[in-house]
Amino acid sequence: MRFVEIIEKKRNGLTLNESEIKYFVDAVVNETVPDYQISSFLMAVYFKGMDADETALLTKYMMYSGEVVDLSAIEGIKVDKHSTGGVGDKTTLALTAMVAACGAKVAKMSGRGLGHTGGTLDKLESIKNFECYISNEQFSKQVNEIGLAVIGQSLNMVPADKKLYALRDVTATVDSIPLIASSIMSKKLASGSDAILLDVKYGEGAFMHDVESAEQLANAMIAIGKKLNKNIKAVVSNMNQPLGNTIGNALEVKEAIETLQGKGPQDFKELCVELGSIMLLQSNVASSKEEAVDMLENAIASGSALQKLKQLVDWQKGDVACIENPEVLPKSKYVVAIKTQKTGYVHDLKALELGVLAMKLGAGRQTKEESIDHSVGIVLNKKVGDFVEQDQLLAEIHTNSELSEEWLKQFYSCFIIEDAYISKPKLIEKIIE
Ligand code: URA
To answer: How many structural domains are present in the chain?
Structure first.
Protein backbone atom coordinates (compact mmCIF):
# COMPACT_ATOMS: atom_id res chain seq x y z
CA MET A 1 0.00 0.00 0.00
CA ARG A 2 1.26 3.51 -0.78
CA PHE A 3 0.26 6.36 1.48
CA VAL A 4 -0.46 8.62 -1.50
CA GLU A 5 -3.20 6.21 -2.60
CA ILE A 6 -4.97 6.62 0.75
CA ILE A 7 -4.78 10.40 0.44
CA GLU A 8 -6.12 10.19 -3.11
CA LYS A 9 -8.98 7.89 -2.13
CA LYS A 10 -10.11 10.21 0.67
CA ARG A 11 -9.60 13.29 -1.51
CA ASN A 12 -12.00 11.70 -4.02
CA GLY A 13 -14.57 11.21 -1.26
CA LEU A 14 -14.35 7.42 -1.17
CA THR A 15 -14.69 5.25 1.91
CA LEU A 16 -11.52 3.80 3.41
CA ASN A 17 -11.43 0.18 4.49
CA GLU A 18 -10.06 -1.22 7.76
CA SER A 19 -6.58 -2.07 6.45
CA GLU A 20 -6.18 1.43 4.96
CA ILE A 21 -7.17 3.08 8.25
CA LYS A 22 -4.84 0.81 10.21
CA TYR A 23 -2.06 1.61 7.72
CA PHE A 24 -2.67 5.34 8.26
CA VAL A 25 -2.53 5.13 12.09
CA ASP A 26 0.55 2.87 12.00
CA ALA A 27 2.29 5.31 9.67
CA VAL A 28 1.50 8.19 12.04
CA VAL A 29 2.75 6.38 15.15
CA ASN A 30 5.82 4.81 13.55
CA GLU A 31 6.65 8.04 11.70
CA THR A 32 7.09 6.21 8.41
CA VAL A 33 5.48 9.01 6.39
CA PRO A 34 6.36 12.70 6.40
CA ASP A 35 4.15 15.26 8.15
CA TYR A 36 3.13 16.82 4.80
CA GLN A 37 1.43 13.58 3.73
CA ILE A 38 -0.35 13.16 7.07
CA SER A 39 -1.45 16.80 6.84
CA SER A 40 -2.78 16.27 3.31
CA PHE A 41 -4.75 13.30 4.52
CA LEU A 42 -6.18 15.35 7.41
CA MET A 43 -7.22 18.08 4.98
CA ALA A 44 -8.91 15.48 2.76
CA VAL A 45 -10.87 14.23 5.81
CA TYR A 46 -11.72 17.83 6.70
CA PHE A 47 -13.34 18.35 3.30
CA LYS A 48 -14.74 14.88 2.52
CA GLY A 49 -15.55 13.63 6.05
CA MET A 50 -15.67 10.04 7.22
CA ASP A 51 -18.68 7.79 7.68
CA ALA A 52 -19.55 6.18 11.03
CA ASP A 53 -17.65 2.94 10.26
CA GLU A 54 -14.50 4.77 9.17
CA THR A 55 -14.64 7.04 12.24
CA ALA A 56 -15.07 4.07 14.60
CA LEU A 57 -12.15 2.23 12.95
CA LEU A 58 -9.94 5.32 13.13
CA THR A 59 -10.84 5.64 16.84
CA LYS A 60 -10.13 1.98 17.51
CA TYR A 61 -6.66 2.05 15.95
CA MET A 62 -5.86 5.38 17.64
CA MET A 63 -6.93 3.91 20.98
CA TYR A 64 -4.68 0.87 20.52
CA SER A 65 -1.73 3.03 19.46
CA GLY A 66 -0.72 3.22 23.14
CA GLU A 67 -1.57 1.99 26.62
CA VAL A 68 -5.17 0.88 27.16
CA VAL A 69 -6.07 0.87 30.84
CA ASP A 70 -7.35 -2.40 32.23
CA LEU A 71 -9.93 -1.72 34.94
CA SER A 72 -11.01 -5.37 35.28
CA ALA A 73 -9.63 -5.45 38.84
CA ILE A 74 -12.41 -3.05 39.79
CA GLU A 75 -15.68 -4.78 40.58
CA GLY A 76 -18.91 -3.68 38.92
CA ILE A 77 -19.72 -1.15 36.23
CA LYS A 78 -17.15 1.63 35.91
CA VAL A 79 -18.68 4.90 34.75
CA ASP A 80 -16.87 7.92 33.34
CA LYS A 81 -17.97 11.31 32.10
CA HIS A 82 -16.27 13.66 29.69
CA SER A 83 -16.89 17.33 29.06
CA THR A 84 -15.81 18.83 25.76
CA GLY A 85 -14.60 21.79 27.80
CA GLY A 86 -15.76 25.18 28.85
CA VAL A 87 -15.30 28.12 31.16
CA GLY A 88 -15.95 27.59 34.88
CA ASP A 89 -16.60 23.89 34.22
CA LYS A 90 -15.79 22.35 37.59
CA THR A 91 -18.38 19.59 37.13
CA THR A 92 -16.05 16.65 37.75
CA LEU A 93 -15.19 17.93 41.23
CA ALA A 94 -18.75 17.82 42.54
CA LEU A 95 -20.47 15.36 40.20
CA THR A 96 -18.07 12.42 40.69
CA ALA A 97 -18.36 12.71 44.49
CA MET A 98 -22.18 12.84 44.27
CA VAL A 99 -22.36 9.80 42.01
CA ALA A 100 -19.81 7.79 44.00
CA ALA A 101 -21.64 8.65 47.24
CA CYS A 102 -24.71 6.96 45.71
CA GLY A 103 -22.76 3.76 45.06
CA ALA A 104 -21.46 4.11 41.47
CA LYS A 105 -17.83 3.33 40.63
CA VAL A 106 -16.07 6.31 39.08
CA ALA A 107 -12.59 5.69 37.66
CA LYS A 108 -11.88 9.08 36.16
CA MET A 109 -8.92 10.21 34.09
CA SER A 110 -8.80 13.95 33.57
CA GLY A 111 -6.71 16.52 31.76
CA ARG A 112 -5.21 19.97 32.17
CA GLY A 113 -6.52 23.27 30.91
CA LEU A 114 -5.36 25.07 27.79
CA GLY A 115 -6.32 28.52 26.54
CA HIS A 116 -9.67 29.75 27.84
CA THR A 117 -10.78 26.36 29.19
CA GLY A 118 -9.75 25.01 32.57
CA GLY A 119 -8.69 21.48 33.44
CA THR A 120 -9.72 19.26 36.35
CA LEU A 121 -6.14 18.34 37.30
CA ASP A 122 -5.17 22.00 37.65
CA LYS A 123 -8.21 22.60 39.83
CA LEU A 124 -7.44 19.61 42.06
CA GLU A 125 -3.84 20.74 42.41
CA SER A 126 -5.12 23.88 44.19
CA ILE A 127 -5.53 21.47 47.10
CA LYS A 128 -2.20 21.31 48.93
CA ASN A 129 -0.27 18.05 48.26
CA PHE A 130 -3.04 16.50 46.09
CA GLU A 131 -1.48 13.72 43.98
CA CYS A 132 -2.84 13.48 40.43
CA TYR A 133 -0.55 10.64 39.38
CA ILE A 134 -0.84 7.29 41.15
CA SER A 135 -0.01 3.74 40.03
CA ASN A 136 -2.58 1.65 38.14
CA GLU A 137 -2.75 -0.74 41.13
CA GLN A 138 -3.43 2.12 43.52
CA PHE A 139 -6.03 3.52 41.12
CA SER A 140 -7.94 0.20 41.02
CA LYS A 141 -7.64 -0.30 44.79
CA GLN A 142 -8.98 3.20 45.47
CA VAL A 143 -11.97 2.80 43.15
CA ASN A 144 -12.74 -0.62 44.65
CA GLU A 145 -12.63 0.72 48.20
CA ILE A 146 -14.13 4.19 48.00
CA GLY A 147 -15.76 4.13 44.55
CA LEU A 148 -13.84 7.14 43.26
CA ALA A 149 -10.46 8.20 41.89
CA VAL A 150 -9.61 11.21 39.71
CA ILE A 151 -6.17 11.05 38.17
CA GLY A 152 -4.12 12.33 35.24
CA GLN A 153 -3.99 10.29 32.04
CA SER A 154 -0.86 8.21 31.62
CA LEU A 155 1.58 9.78 29.17
CA ASN A 156 1.66 6.54 27.16
CA MET A 157 -1.98 6.70 26.15
CA VAL A 158 -3.02 7.37 22.53
CA PRO A 159 0.27 8.60 21.02
CA ALA A 160 -1.49 8.77 17.63
CA ASP A 161 -3.71 11.56 18.95
CA LYS A 162 -0.76 13.58 20.25
CA LYS A 163 0.86 13.53 16.82
CA LEU A 164 -2.37 14.13 14.89
CA TYR A 165 -3.60 16.91 17.18
CA ALA A 166 -0.30 18.77 16.88
CA LEU A 167 -0.58 18.63 13.08
CA ARG A 168 -4.29 19.55 13.06
CA ASP A 169 -3.52 22.55 15.23
CA VAL A 170 -1.18 24.03 12.61
CA THR A 171 -3.01 22.93 9.45
CA ALA A 172 -6.49 24.35 10.18
CA THR A 173 -7.99 20.87 10.45
CA VAL A 174 -9.06 20.88 14.12
CA ASP A 175 -12.74 21.52 13.56
CA SER A 176 -13.68 18.40 11.67
CA ILE A 177 -16.32 16.26 13.39
CA PRO A 178 -14.77 12.82 12.60
CA LEU A 179 -11.34 14.09 13.70
CA ILE A 180 -12.65 15.64 16.94
CA ALA A 181 -14.85 12.62 17.72
CA SER A 182 -12.04 10.10 17.14
CA SER A 183 -9.58 12.22 19.13
CA ILE A 184 -11.86 12.51 22.18
CA MET A 185 -13.22 8.97 22.03
CA SER A 186 -9.85 7.26 21.54
CA LYS A 187 -8.71 8.80 24.83
CA LYS A 188 -11.97 8.01 26.64
CA LEU A 189 -12.00 4.42 25.42
CA ALA A 190 -8.34 3.93 26.37
CA SER A 191 -9.29 4.94 29.94
CA GLY A 192 -11.16 1.65 30.25
CA SER A 193 -14.59 2.48 31.75
CA ASP A 194 -17.67 0.46 30.77
CA ALA A 195 -20.09 3.37 30.60
CA ILE A 196 -19.40 6.88 29.33
CA LEU A 197 -21.45 10.05 29.62
CA LEU A 198 -20.47 12.92 27.35
CA ASP A 199 -21.25 16.53 28.21
CA VAL A 200 -21.01 18.20 24.83
CA LYS A 201 -20.95 21.96 25.22
CA TYR A 202 -22.19 24.45 22.69
CA GLY A 203 -21.89 28.21 22.65
CA GLU A 204 -19.46 31.05 22.69
CA GLY A 205 -17.10 29.46 25.22
CA ALA A 206 -17.20 25.99 23.65
CA PHE A 207 -15.56 24.14 20.80
CA MET A 208 -18.86 23.86 18.96
CA HIS A 209 -20.56 27.22 18.62
CA ASP A 210 -24.16 26.13 18.01
CA VAL A 211 -26.53 23.44 19.22
CA GLU A 212 -26.69 21.73 15.82
CA SER A 213 -22.94 21.15 15.53
CA ALA A 214 -22.70 20.08 19.20
CA GLU A 215 -25.45 17.56 18.48
CA GLN A 216 -23.62 16.31 15.39
CA LEU A 217 -20.46 15.81 17.46
CA ALA A 218 -22.44 14.07 20.21
CA ASN A 219 -24.04 11.73 17.67
CA ALA A 220 -20.67 10.95 16.07
CA MET A 221 -19.17 10.07 19.46
CA ILE A 222 -22.20 7.99 20.47
CA ALA A 223 -21.94 6.04 17.20
CA ILE A 224 -18.26 5.29 17.94
CA GLY A 225 -19.04 4.20 21.51
CA LYS A 226 -21.86 1.92 20.37
CA LYS A 227 -19.77 0.32 17.63
CA LEU A 228 -17.10 -0.37 20.24
CA ASN A 229 -19.64 -1.85 22.69
CA LYS A 230 -19.80 0.86 25.32
CA ASN A 231 -22.85 2.09 27.18
CA ILE A 232 -22.67 5.68 25.98
CA LYS A 233 -24.98 8.69 26.29
CA ALA A 234 -24.61 12.43 25.81
CA VAL A 235 -25.99 15.69 27.11
CA VAL A 236 -25.77 18.86 25.04
CA SER A 237 -25.40 21.85 27.38
CA ASN A 238 -25.07 25.60 27.09
CA MET A 239 -21.66 27.26 27.36
CA ASN A 240 -22.54 30.76 26.21
CA GLN A 241 -21.91 32.04 29.72
CA PRO A 242 -19.56 30.49 32.31
CA LEU A 243 -20.91 27.61 34.38
CA GLY A 244 -21.58 28.55 38.00
CA ASN A 245 -20.17 31.76 39.43
CA THR A 246 -16.43 31.13 39.51
CA ILE A 247 -13.60 30.89 36.99
CA GLY A 248 -10.17 29.97 38.35
CA ASN A 249 -8.78 26.93 40.08
CA ALA A 250 -9.03 27.36 43.88
CA LEU A 251 -12.19 29.45 43.44
CA GLU A 252 -13.80 26.59 41.48
CA VAL A 253 -12.79 24.01 44.09
CA LYS A 254 -14.41 26.23 46.72
CA GLU A 255 -17.58 26.48 44.64
CA ALA A 256 -17.70 22.69 44.16
CA ILE A 257 -17.35 22.22 47.95
CA GLU A 258 -20.11 24.77 48.57
CA THR A 259 -22.32 22.92 46.07
CA LEU A 260 -21.82 19.69 48.00
CA GLN A 261 -22.74 21.64 51.14
CA GLY A 262 -26.02 22.58 49.45
CA LYS A 263 -24.97 26.19 48.89
CA GLY A 264 -23.89 26.08 45.25
CA PRO A 265 -25.19 28.09 42.29
CA GLN A 266 -28.41 26.81 40.78
CA ASP A 267 -27.09 26.22 37.22
CA PHE A 268 -24.08 24.22 38.37
CA LYS A 269 -26.17 22.06 40.69
CA GLU A 270 -28.74 21.49 37.93
CA LEU A 271 -26.05 20.20 35.57
CA CYS A 272 -24.52 17.94 38.25
CA VAL A 273 -27.91 16.42 39.09
CA GLU A 274 -28.82 15.91 35.42
CA LEU A 275 -25.49 14.29 34.51
CA GLY A 276 -25.40 12.36 37.80
CA SER A 277 -28.85 10.88 37.28
CA ILE A 278 -27.84 9.52 33.87
CA MET A 279 -24.61 8.09 35.31
CA LEU A 280 -26.54 6.32 38.11
CA LEU A 281 -28.82 4.76 35.49
CA GLN A 282 -25.83 3.73 33.35
CA SER A 283 -24.29 2.11 36.47
CA ASN A 284 -27.53 0.27 37.34
CA VAL A 285 -27.42 1.98 40.75
CA ALA A 286 -30.83 3.56 40.14
CA SER A 287 -33.71 2.13 38.15
CA SER A 288 -35.51 5.34 37.25
CA LYS A 289 -34.62 8.96 36.66
CA GLU A 290 -36.75 10.06 39.65
CA GLU A 291 -35.00 7.60 41.95
CA ALA A 292 -31.59 8.76 40.69
CA VAL A 293 -32.43 12.44 41.25
CA ASP A 294 -33.66 11.67 44.80
CA MET A 295 -30.47 9.75 45.56
CA LEU A 296 -28.31 12.65 44.37
CA GLU A 297 -30.34 15.26 46.29
CA ASN A 298 -30.01 13.08 49.41
CA ALA A 299 -26.28 12.71 48.90
CA ILE A 300 -26.01 16.50 49.12
CA ALA A 301 -28.51 16.93 51.96
CA SER A 302 -27.00 14.16 54.11
CA GLY A 303 -23.43 15.35 53.56
CA SER A 304 -22.39 11.98 52.10
CA ALA A 305 -21.26 13.56 48.79
CA LEU A 306 -19.06 16.04 50.67
CA GLN A 307 -17.63 13.16 52.72
CA LYS A 308 -16.89 11.33 49.45
CA LEU A 309 -14.92 14.30 48.16
CA LYS A 310 -13.04 14.40 51.46
CA GLN A 311 -12.24 10.69 51.10
CA LEU A 312 -10.97 11.27 47.55
CA VAL A 313 -8.71 14.10 48.71
CA ASP A 314 -7.48 12.01 51.64
CA TRP A 315 -6.69 8.93 49.50
CA GLN A 316 -4.79 11.12 47.03
CA LYS A 317 -2.81 12.72 49.87
CA GLY A 318 -4.35 16.19 49.61
CA ASP A 319 -5.00 18.49 52.56
CA VAL A 320 -8.52 17.52 53.73
CA ALA A 321 -8.74 20.65 55.88
CA CYS A 322 -9.95 22.54 52.78
CA ILE A 323 -13.13 20.46 52.64
CA GLU A 324 -14.28 21.70 56.05
CA ASN A 325 -12.75 25.11 55.59
CA PRO A 326 -12.26 26.19 51.94
CA GLU A 327 -10.64 29.39 53.26
CA VAL A 328 -7.37 27.44 53.51
CA LEU A 329 -7.23 27.11 49.70
CA PRO A 330 -4.73 29.41 47.92
CA LYS A 331 -5.75 33.07 48.09
CA SER A 332 -4.77 35.99 45.89
CA LYS A 333 -3.16 39.17 47.22
CA TYR A 334 -5.98 41.45 46.02
CA VAL A 335 -9.74 41.09 45.59
CA VAL A 336 -11.03 43.90 43.38
CA ALA A 337 -14.76 44.67 43.48
CA ILE A 338 -16.27 45.57 40.09
CA LYS A 339 -19.46 47.59 40.17
CA THR A 340 -22.02 47.96 37.39
CA GLN A 341 -21.95 51.08 35.27
CA LYS A 342 -25.51 50.60 34.04
CA THR A 343 -28.96 49.53 35.27
CA GLY A 344 -30.78 46.73 33.41
CA TYR A 345 -30.87 42.99 32.74
CA VAL A 346 -27.74 41.01 31.93
CA HIS A 347 -28.37 39.77 28.38
CA ASP A 348 -24.98 38.24 27.69
CA LEU A 349 -21.93 37.24 29.68
CA LYS A 350 -19.25 36.32 27.20
CA ALA A 351 -17.76 32.99 28.26
CA LEU A 352 -14.85 32.87 25.83
CA GLU A 353 -13.64 36.38 26.66
CA LEU A 354 -14.03 35.79 30.41
CA GLY A 355 -12.03 32.57 30.08
CA VAL A 356 -9.28 34.46 28.28
CA LEU A 357 -9.32 37.24 30.92
CA ALA A 358 -9.03 34.65 33.71
CA MET A 359 -6.13 33.07 31.81
CA LYS A 360 -4.44 36.49 31.63
CA LEU A 361 -4.72 36.77 35.42
CA GLY A 362 -2.71 33.52 35.56
CA ALA A 363 -5.57 31.03 36.08
CA GLY A 364 -4.86 29.29 32.76
CA ARG A 365 -2.06 28.67 30.33
CA GLN A 366 -1.53 29.83 26.77
CA THR A 367 0.91 27.04 25.97
CA LYS A 368 1.16 23.56 27.49
CA GLU A 369 4.47 24.42 29.15
CA GLU A 370 3.25 27.42 31.19
CA SER A 371 2.58 27.14 34.91
CA ILE A 372 -0.57 28.50 36.50
CA ASP A 373 -1.52 30.49 39.59
CA HIS A 374 -4.14 28.55 41.53
CA SER A 375 -5.26 31.52 43.62
CA VAL A 376 -6.48 33.91 40.92
CA GLY A 377 -9.73 34.16 38.99
CA ILE A 378 -13.14 35.75 38.66
CA VAL A 379 -16.23 35.48 40.87
CA LEU A 380 -19.39 36.54 39.04
CA ASN A 381 -22.07 38.13 41.14
CA LYS A 382 -24.54 38.44 38.26
CA LYS A 383 -25.43 36.05 35.46
CA VAL A 384 -27.59 36.22 32.34
CA GLY A 385 -31.20 37.06 33.27
CA ASP A 386 -30.26 38.89 36.49
CA PHE A 387 -31.32 42.50 37.07
CA VAL A 388 -28.53 44.87 38.07
CA GLU A 389 -28.64 48.41 39.33
CA GLN A 390 -25.91 50.93 38.77
CA ASP A 391 -23.13 50.60 41.37
CA GLN A 392 -24.17 47.09 42.42
CA LEU A 393 -21.46 44.44 42.74
CA LEU A 394 -21.02 42.75 39.37
CA ALA A 395 -17.99 40.61 40.10
CA GLU A 396 -14.88 40.21 42.21
CA ILE A 397 -11.48 39.79 40.63
CA HIS A 398 -8.97 37.72 42.58
CA THR A 399 -5.56 38.84 41.38
CA ASN A 400 -1.92 38.99 42.37
CA SER A 401 -1.14 42.01 40.23
CA GLU A 402 -2.80 45.31 39.54
CA LEU A 403 -5.48 45.19 36.85
CA SER A 404 -4.62 47.24 33.76
CA GLU A 405 -7.06 49.69 32.16
CA GLU A 406 -7.14 47.44 29.11
CA TRP A 407 -8.01 44.35 31.19
CA LEU A 408 -10.83 46.24 32.95
CA LYS A 409 -12.16 47.60 29.65
CA GLN A 410 -12.27 44.09 28.23
CA PHE A 411 -13.92 42.81 31.40
CA TYR A 412 -16.74 45.36 31.22
CA SER A 413 -17.27 44.53 27.56
CA CYS A 414 -18.10 40.92 28.54
CA PHE A 415 -21.33 42.09 30.21
CA ILE A 416 -24.12 43.11 27.86
CA ILE A 417 -26.72 44.94 29.95
CA GLU A 418 -30.01 46.07 28.38
CA ASP A 419 -33.26 47.59 29.64
CA ALA A 420 -35.52 44.81 28.34
CA TYR A 421 -36.36 41.83 30.55
CA ILE A 422 -34.70 38.55 29.62
CA SER A 423 -35.29 35.17 31.24
CA LYS A 424 -32.53 32.86 32.41
CA PRO A 425 -31.18 30.75 29.54
CA LYS A 426 -31.83 27.05 29.23
CA LEU A 427 -28.80 25.10 30.45
CA ILE A 428 -29.51 21.60 29.19
CA GLU A 429 -30.51 21.55 25.57
CA LYS A 430 -30.80 17.86 24.86
CA ILE A 431 -30.14 14.36 26.14
CA ILE A 432 -29.03 11.93 23.43
CA GLU A 433 -29.08 8.20 24.03
N1 URA B 1 -10.57 17.81 22.39
C2 URA B 1 -9.81 16.74 22.01
O3 URA B 1 -9.35 15.98 22.83
N4 URA B 1 -9.62 16.57 20.67
C5 URA B 1 -10.12 17.38 19.74
O6 URA B 1 -9.90 17.15 18.57
C7 URA B 1 -10.88 18.48 20.15
C8 URA B 1 -11.10 18.66 21.49
So the answer is: 3
